[in-house]
Design a protein that fits this description.
With 161 residues, this protein is an alpha/beta fold. It has helices spanning 2-17, 22-29, 44-54, 58-61, 79-90, 95-98, 108-121, 144-148, 151-158, and strands at 68-72, 99-105, 125-130, 137-142. A 4-stranded mixed sheet has the order 1-2-3-4.
Length: 161
């Protein structure tokens, strides 16, 4: 149990020092991705580039909406979502209150990595173990920021649920 607590502390420290896909990087470096299932994690530098290109109009969108919603159908360890939150933060947008994420993956390991990293970064999100193509659903993990921020109600009120 001490080793798990220590590992979690290291991940939290790394995310605090430099937000990025710490667990996905580690997972790929260890060579344990399931290539038979097509499991290839996006390098974080690529995720950063894509995120910066996709959210350049976020401030304008927030002029007409109370918050943004993001859907990631194959989240892996969360690299794209993490990159998006950091790109928003660079634009002065407080992602902890202005963005809600729904992230899906069929891999239980990927879902747990995403859940852990988004939870530590304070991202309001619902992380689902789900097949994005067939919509077969195996479980849902709302992050603490989702629960404590009352996001279920906010999404319901705006019709985003």
């Amino acid at each position: 149990m001490d080793r798990f607590a220590e590992a979690l502390a290291f991940v939290a420290l790394e995310l605090d020092a430099q937000p990025r896909d710490v667990l996905g990087e580690t997972y790929m470096q260890l060579g344990i991705a399931n290539r038979d299932q097509g499991q290839f994690f996006t390098p974080y530098s690529v995720a950063q580039l894509i995120a910066s290109m996709q959210i350049n109009d976020a401030p304008a969108q927030l002029l007409t909406r109370p918050f943004l919603t993001v859907y990631e159908p194959a989240c892996g360890a969360g690299a794209m979502v993490i990159a998006m939150t950091q790109a928003l933060a660079a634009q002065g947008i407080e992602y902890q209150t202005k963005v809600h994420v729904t992230a899906d993956d069929i891999s239980a390991i990927a879902v747990h990595m995403t859940y852990m990293q988004l939870s530590l970064l304070g991202v309001p999100a619902v992380v689902n173990r789900r097949n994005s193509l067939t919509l077969e659903h195996f479980g849902t993990w709302p992050t603490p920021a989702h629960v404590l921020g009352g996001w279920a109600r906010k999404l319901e009120l705006t019709g985003s649920a």
